[in-house]
Design a protein that fits this description.
Strand order of the largest sheet: 2-1-5-4-3
Structural class: alpha+beta
Order of helices and strands: HEEHHHEEEHHEHHEEHEEHEE
Distance between the termini: 125 Å
Largest sheet: 5 strands, antiparallel
Helix content: 40-55%
Number of strands: 12
Radius of gyration: 45 Å
Number of helices: 10
Shape: rod-shaped
Length: 409
């Protein structure tokens, strides 16, 4: 009887052991399956991290770097041997280590996903500015940190662009201030020119009138030498009168201007008609190509062409028929005009100087003038938001170019 009971207990124990063995095998299979899944998941996560477009870095509670991805390697120019196991502060410029470590240390207090702007030292010693988002992983107790993960966005170019923009804005503000000062000074200068030229007209007329009276009343008492002196004074006063009037006109230029739609071909034809006597006398030929219709300051634009045509005739070669060509072409958002002649030309050294006020290059009486004509031209072109320049070979004629913007009211 006792033997049978012992056998029954043994069989029961063996059965329980078999059940536990089977359960253990099932658990082992499940563990093996989970292990394989974990390996696959880890591999997936590893690839996901490595090939992410943004730099990712992980460091332990002692701030030693434990892993990073390819984007981080590109950002820093540093490989695993230079980084893994090293303190994270090797990435920072030396002068900023304490400051940045204080910011990063805050992640250990549970301040998740805080955005911090940090400068990273590249292996070539250049600086990259990175916007970091970081989070610290904790043990289940919520107190013991395991690791900190950070992902960054390289904002170096954006920061550079912001700095350039700020610099540009600062320069623009300064330029506006300077332009304001310049505009005020220019206004005062124009007012001075207006007043001075206007007020000088009267004493000049007085000198001219008294010289005429003197010549008439004492004509029988003066010799040829005295008459020559009187003639010199009269010529000088006439030149001064012309100069003062030109200065007065120059100071008025740009005041009370009115924008008008102008047929440029018709305007040039009118200028040619006004200069008919001079053109016939000098046997000048003028060729005008097709011209646009533009919004312009008509009176000033007429003066521009009149000055350039008169200059082309004035600086003609002796015994050679003057020929003038006037052309236009569309140039992006502007129109480009040219006035060409076959005159005496201009040496390159004078290309800039001739547009300055009161500049004259010739002592020959045939080429004398007020020295204001081309200054007029430049000021008129600037009123139309354009530029004027000359191309010439001395002795072979000159071409004056200028651009004009189709203005809007």
């Amino acid at each position: 009887m006792r033997k049978s009971r012992t056998e029954a207990n043994t069989l029961k124990l063996l059965h329980e052991l078999e059940v536990h063995r089977i359960k253990l095998e099932v658990q082992n299979e499940e563990i093996e399956k989970l292990s394989k899944e974990l390996i696959i998941t880890n591999s997936y996560l590893e690839n996901l991290v490595n090939y992410a477009n943004v730099p990712i870095i992980v460091w332990d509670p002692r701030f030693n770097i434990t892993r990073f991805n390819n984007a981080f390697e590109q950002l820093t120019g540093r490989g695993a041997a230079e980084v893994i196991g090293k303190p994270i502060d090797i990435l920072f410029p030396r002068a900023l280590v304490s400051h940045y470590m204080a910011l990063i240390n805050k992640t250990l207090s549970g301040e998740y996903w805080k955005t911090v702007e940090i400068d990273i030292m590249h292996s070539d010693e250049s600086i990259r500015t990175v916007l970091w988002n970081s989070a610290t992983l904790f043990e289940p107790d919520g107190l013991t940190p395991i690791a900190t993960i950070a992902q960054g966005y390289d904002i170096t170019e954006r920061k550079r662009a912001e700095e350039e923009l700020k610099k540009g804005m600062d320069e623009l503000i300064m330029l506006n201030k300077e332009l304001g000062i310049f505009a005020h000074a220019n206004k005062e200068l124009e007012q001075f020119a207006f007043v001075a030229s206007h007020n000088l007209q009267e004493p000049l007329r007085t000198v001219s009138n008294y010289m005429q009276i003197f010549e008439e009343d004492y004509s029988d008492q003066i010799d040829d030498k005295a008459r020559k002196y009187i003639q010199i004074v009269n010529d000088a006063t006439k030149r001064m009168a012309i100069l003062l009037q030109s200065l007065l006109d120059f100071s008025r230029l740009g005041r009370n201007i009115k924008l008008t739609n102008v047929d440029c071909k018709q305007l040039i034809d009118h200028v040619i008609a006004d200069l008919e006597s001079l053109i016939i006398t000098t046997n000048t030929t003028i060729e005008v190509t097709k011209m646009p219709e533009l919004n312009l300051y008509e009176s000033e634009f007429r003066q521009l062409f009149q000055n350039l045509i008169m200059n082309a005739i004035k600086f003609r070669k002796k015994d050679i028929q003057p020929k003038i060509q006037i052309r236009s072409e569309k140039l992006n958002d502007k129109w480009k005009f040219s006035v060409s002649d076959n005159g005496i030309g201009i040496a390159p050294v004078y290309f800039e100087r001739i547009f300055n006020i009161f500049q004259q290059l010739h002592n020959d009486a045939a080429y004398q003038g007020s020295g204001i004509g081309l200054s007029f031209c430049r000021k008129i072109v600037h009123l139309h938001k354009g530029e004027i320049w000359v191309e010439s070979t001395e002795g072979e004629g000159a071409t004056f170019y200028f651009t004009i913007t189709n203005l809007t009211a």
